UniProtKB/TrEMBL annotation:
Protein name: Histidine kinase
Keyword terms: Kinase, Membrane, Transferase, Transmembrane, Transmembrane helix
Organism listed in the record: Candidatus Alistipes intestinigallinarum
Ranges for domain Signal transduction histidine kinase internal region: 158-234
GO MF terms, alphabetically ordered: phosphorelay sensor kinase activity
TM helices/strands, residue ranges: 12-29, 41-63, 75-94, 114-135
Pfam families the UniProt entry points to: His_kinase
UniProt cross-references to InterPro entries, sorted A to Z: Bact_2-comp_sensor_kinase, HATPase_C_sf, Sig_transdc_His_kin_internal
A GO cellular component annotation in the UniProt record: membrane
Length: 349
């Protein structure tokens, strides 16, 4: 719920509660409680209206000006003056303006009954002040919490967008390196690769701008990208790929697996030694499991100019923001191999 929606909902609650209170005598009837006449309802109406004066004077003025600024003495003093003035106005209105209630029995002990009446009313007005304080403080906390959540959501979206903007050039650099190598070997395949790259870039720049995409679209992107990565691989490099033949349409955050695939080709291939890359992506119930294993030939910092070092850190951060408590991500060297395992709990669209 946004701050504006919260505001309107709060006022709707106010109107509903007061409508119930003011309309109660019109609906609560019985054999021993006939429907109120017009003058009787006016006499009843005066009391809840006086409660409204005390409540909203505190709600809009006294609480913010004195209670939240910790000037408790002034808050108490002004409330006593307010309650006293309202009680006196109600008493004078009943006595001198409204016609007397002929059905009300005369007071047996006028002085004592009058004191008891004012003391009881004083407690009611104090309860009204307490209700105003509780509701105002609660609504203020709720508005602050709603604003904080909106700010956090905006910050999260901005951070995610920043992470994507770092990922896109990384993806582009690696792909252009592949096509550059292919131009010297096979111009026809290079032209086809440029066409495939344009399709991949369209996905990266447009489709991936959405928070979530269908899993089938993400799988198609990975399949095309892997085929583009195969182009520059030497003959002694073995690439094993297992992707869902008919993936579901469940929503998944875009570009989650590209960093793992890029790192597998980058660190898993050597131009002179036998190398392999194994990529397995499949659904298991509500889990999406990506397992990648490759031979490990780490690049030194001086020789690595692709900028792909940001890949795993970006992926880790995105997973924490997009799937908190709904993912596991493990990666690292295992003997002469490097493995990465990412499991995500998917939800239905």
């Amino acid at each position: 719920m946004t701050a504006l929606q919260s505001k309107y909902t709060g006022w709707l609650i106010h109107v509903t509660v007061w409508a119930v209170i003011l309309g109660m005598p019109l609906f609560v009837t019985g054999p021993d409680r006939p429907l109120m006449t017009g003058p009787q309802y006016v006499r009843f109406l005066l009391v809840p209206l006086s409660f409204m004066v005390v409540f909203y004077t505190n709600y809009f003025l006294l609480i913010d000006r004195y209670l939240t600024t910790r000037r408790f003495g002034r808050f108490t003093g002004y409330n006593l003056l307010l309650i006293g003035a309202v009680m006196l106005a109600v008493h004078l209105f009943f006595r001198h303006v409204l016609p007397p209630d002929l059905h009300r029995p005369p007071l047996v002990r006028p002085w004592q009954d009058t004191v008891r009446f004012f003391a009881g009313n004083l407690m009611l007005y104090i309860l009204v002040v307490g209700a105003g304080v509780a509701i105002r403080m609660t609504s203020g906390w709720y508005r602050a919490e709603t604003a904080r959540q909106e700010l956090e959501h905006s910050r999260t979206q901005a951070e995610l967008q920043n992470l994507k903007s770092q990922l896109n050039p990384h993806f582009l650099f690696n792909t252009l390196n592949n096509i550059y190598s292919l131009i010297q070997l096979d111009t026809d395949r290079a032209q086809q690769a440029v066409h495939d790259l344009s399709r991949l870039l369209r996905y990266v720049l447009y489709d991936s701008s959405r928070p979530y995409v269908p899993l089938a679209a993400e799988v198609d992107f990975l399949r095309d990208y892997i085929e583009l990565m195969r182009i520059r691989q030497p003959r002694h490099v073995q690439v094993f790929v297992s992707l869902p033949a008919t993936p579901s349409q469940r929503p998944v955050a875009p570009l989650l697996f590209i960093s793992l695939v890029e790192n597998a080709f980058k660190h898993g291939v050597d131009n002179d030694r036998p190398s392999y890359v194994t990529i397995d992506l499949h659904e298991s119930g509500d889990q999406l499991i990506c397992r990648i294993k490759n031979s490990y030939f780490p690049k030194s910092g001086d020789s690595d100019r692709s900028g792909s070092g940001i890949g795993l850190s970006n992926l880790t951060r995105r997973l924490e923001m997009l799937y908190p408590g709904r993912h596991t991500f493990e990666y690292g060297q295992n003997g002469e191999a490097y493995t990465a395992l990412l499991c995500i709990q998917l939800t239905d669209a």
